[in-house]
Amino acid sequence: MVSSACLLQASRAAIRLQLRKQQPYTDTLQKTINRWVTQRCYSIQTSPEFINSLPPLNAADLSILKTTTPKGLHPPEELKFGHTFTDHMLSIEWTSTSGWLAPRITPYQNLSLDPATCVFHYGFECFEGMKAYRAVDGSVRLFRPDKNMARFNNSAQRIALPTFDGQQLIELIKKLVRLDERFIPNARGFSLYLRPTLIGTQRTLGVGPPGSALLYVICSPVGPYYPTGFKAVCLEATTAFVRAWPGGAGDKKIGANYTPCIVPQVDAASRGFHQNLWVFGEDEHPTEAGTMNFFVVLKDKSGQMELATPPLDGTILPGVTRDSVLHLARTRLQGWKVSERYTPLAELAEAAEDGRLVEAFGAGTAAVVSPIRRINWHGKDIFCGLKAGEEAGETALKMQQWIMGIQYGDEPHEWSVKI
Amino acid sequence: MVSSACLLQASRAAIRLQLRKQQPYTDTLQKTINRWVTQRCYSIQTSPEFINSLPPLNAADLSILKTTTPKGLHPPEELKFGHTFTDHMLSIEWTSTSGWLAPRITPYQNLSLDPATCVFHYGFECFEGMKAYRAVDGSVRLFRPDKNMARFNNSAQRIALPTFDGQQLIELIKKLVRLDERFIPNARGFSLYLRPTLIGTQRTLGVGPPGSALLYVICSPVGPYYPTGFKAVCLEATTAFVRAWPGGAGDKKIGANYTPCIVPQVDAASRGFHQNLWVFGEDEHPTEAGTMNFFVVLKDKSGQMELATPPLDGTILPGVTRDSVLHLARTRLQGWKVSERYTPLAELAEAAEDGRLVEAFGAGTAAVVSPIRRINWHGKDIFCGLKAGEEAGETALKMQQWIMGIQYGDEPHEWSVKI
Questions:
Q1: What is the pLDDT of residues B17-29, one digit of tens each?
Q2: Per the CB < 8 Å rule, is B240 touching A220?
C-alpha cells in the first residue's frame, strides 16, 4: 500500500521535476505550482533539495539483457503496420521519490501491472511515432528525433507525467535500434517504426499526478504505406463530432485524443470514405485529416501559388512531417506563399469551382504525404485538383521525394541522424 | 501475430455486436455501419449469422478460484480511497470472434499485457464507480446498479469497445461482493468501492476498433468522504482549460476525460482551492465541479426556490447521484422549481449579491454531496450562501440524509438492491 503521504510527495515531486526540466506553461503557473508543492504538504515536507537531487534520465546507466531466442524475420512483403515486433525493448521506470531509474534493454516481453494502475483508468499515456531507415550507404538513420523528443515531453507534461532529457532518450533509442537493426528490410519505403510510450503506473484509484511511470520503446518493422504507388483518398468532413477544442489537449500525442475518434472514423468509412476530415468552428475549417495534418495548395485569382495548413492553435498536432513540409516549402518553392492559416471549406469549395484548388494532402510519419482526391462536405463533393486517373499532385510528389531523399540518405541533411 | 483479415473481422464483429445489443447513435449511423460491416470486407466475409451467434455475457458460466492467502483487514480508520483491494477480482475476456468468454473470479492479481496493447497507446478504457453498503439490517446492498450498467455500456460504445447485458454483470458483481463482503466495515459512511473497468487488449498499433477486450471488476474498502462531518470547499472557475465540448465525449466515463484535467486541478490547488469549477461557453456557465456534477439552489425575486444543474447536453457526465438528487428534489421538495438549465457565473454572482444564491454543491458517488463555500471567478469571490462556520446548507444536508438513508437501508426503496 502506498501511503497518502507518499502519494502527496509523489505528486509534488513529479510536478517539480517537470518544471525543473521543461519550460512551464507560464511563469505564473510555475510559481503557483511551486507554492502548492512547498506549502500544501499535509504530512510530509518535500524539500526542494530532495527533489532537485532526483536522478535524471541517464543513458550511461543502460544495462542490456539480450534475448536467447531471436525471432525469425517475416518476408518484407508480408509486413503489416504495428503487427510484429523486434527481439528487444527499452524500459525506464520513474518514481517521484527516486527519479529516473537505470534504463534497461531486455527481450520484448509483457508488462505485468496491477489492475488498479492509473493507465487503465484515467488515460495516463502518451506516445511518439518515429522511424529508423536503412540509408543508401547502408547506415541506419533517424529523422529529426529531437522534434519527437520535444513533443513527447510536451505531451507528458500536459498530463502530469514526468519529463526527461530528450537527448539521453535518443542515445538509448539508437542503442536499441542498433541491437535490432537486422529487422529493417534493406529496401526503399521500408523502415523500423519506433513507438516510445510513457504510461502512469501508480497503483491507486485517486485522480491525481501519478507517483510512478514507465517509459518504454518497442520497434515494429513496416513496409511502405503505398506499396504500389500513391492512391489518393476520399475524405468526409465530420461535423457531428469534434476532435479537439481550444483549452483542451488536442495538440498533444496522448491516448485521450485517439479513442473518441474511432467511431467517427468508422462512421465515415461506412459511407465508403477512406478517412474523415476533422473540421472546427462556425467557418468549418479543416483541422486534421484522420490522424494526419492537412495541407492545401491554392492559386489565387492573380495566379499566386499558396501552400496552406492550419496554424498550431492548440487543436492541431504539431507534426514532424508538417514542420518538414512547411520548412521545405519555404526554402524550395520559389515565389510561393506558405501560410499557416485556416482554409474554411466554403473557401475550398469556391476555389475548386474556379479551378484554383490545385491540391490537398495529408502529412504524417506513416505515409509522409497522402494525396486527397475529394472531400465530401454536407453531401457535396469538393474535388481537390487531381485529374481522372491521377493519384498525386506535383507538390505532394515533390514533398515525398524531398523528405524520403533525406530520410534514406540520398541527400546529406542535418535532419537525418545516423544511429 | 493477428492477421489483417482477423483484424477487419474483429472490428466489424465488435461494431455489430454493439449495435445488436445497444441502441445506436442514430438509425442512419446504424444502417451505414451495418453496410460497412457487411460490404467492406476485404479478405474475410463476416457473415451476420456468425456475428449474431457470438456468445453474450453469461453470468451462469462463472468459475470461481478462491484465494489461498486471504488478506488481513485494515483498521477502518486507516482506509484511504482506492489504496487497498479485496482478495478477489472478476475478469471477463471478449474477442470479436468468440464474443464474451466465461467470467472468472480469481485471486486479485496483476494483468500481463503485451506492450503494444491498445489500452497503453490510444486510451481504450472506460470504467464505472459504484459502491456496496452494509445496511442497518446487516444485508449488503448496491445503489442503482442498473444506472451504472447503462452508462458503462454507453461509454464502451462511444469508444468502440464491446457492450454487454448489464443485468448479467450485476449478477456477477453481486457474487464478487458476496465473496469479499468481510472487507466492508460495519459502520455508517463506510462502503466497498467497486471499479468495473473495460480495456481494449488488441496487440497491434493500428488505430481502429479493438478485436479483443477485458472487462474486470476490483473492490476497495473505503471510509466516509467527510470523516468528521461536512467541510465546505472553495472552487476556482477554470477558464483557460476546457474539460468537454459539443461533439466530444465529455459525457462518457472514459480515461480520455480524466488525464487532461489533472494539470488544471493542480493549477487551481496551487492557489489554495480544493478543486476547480469547469465552465463552458461565452456565458461561462459551470458544467462540473472537479469530477462531480454541479448544483445550485436559487431564490428568485418573488421568493420561488429553485434547484438547478446543467442539462445533459453532451458535456456533462450523467451522474447517478445527479439523477438521484433531481428525482428526490422533484418528489420531495414541495413547491420548488427543479431545473436542468445553465446558470452562468454572472447570474450566480448577481444572485449572490442579492442574497438569492442559497446554496451550491457538488454531487457524486464518492461524497454524495459536497457543499461549496465560494467560487473564485476571474479573481472575484462568489459566496454560495453558507454562513461563517457553517459547512453545509439545508438542501445538501437533506439530500445526503435521503440518499444515505436509501443506501444504508433505513428507508426501503427500489434504488437499493440487496446482493
A1: 443 333 333 444 4
A2: no
* Cell output for B90: 472478476
Average pLDDT, chain B: 89
Per-residue pLDDT, A50:
56
Complex-level ipTM? 0.89
Q: Is A221 in contact with A190 (CB distance < 8 Å)?
A: yes
Residues of B in contact with A205 (CB under 8 A): 81-83, 193, 195, 220
A residues 289..318 contacting B (CB < 8 A): 291
Q: A245 near B240, Cβ under 8 Å?
A: no
Q: What's the whole-model pTM score?
A: 0.89
CA geometry: angle at B136 spanning B132 and B142, to 5°?
A: 20
pLDDT per residue as tens digits for the range B365-414: 999 999 999 999 999 999 999 999 999 999 999 999 999 999 999 999 99
Structural domains for chain B: 4-36 (no CATH), 48-222 (3.30.470.10), 233-418 (3.20.10.10)
Do strands B63-64 and B104-107 pair parallel, antiparallel, or not at all (unpaired)? Answer: parallel
Burial pattern A16-39, b for ≥16 Cβ within 10 A else e, equals bbbbebbebbeeebbebbbebbee
pLDDT digits (tens, 9 = 90+) for B99-110: 999 999 999 999
A38, B270 contact by CB (below 8 A) = no
What is the Cα–Cα distance from A32 to A342, expressed in whole angstroms? 35
A221 strand-pairing partners? A192
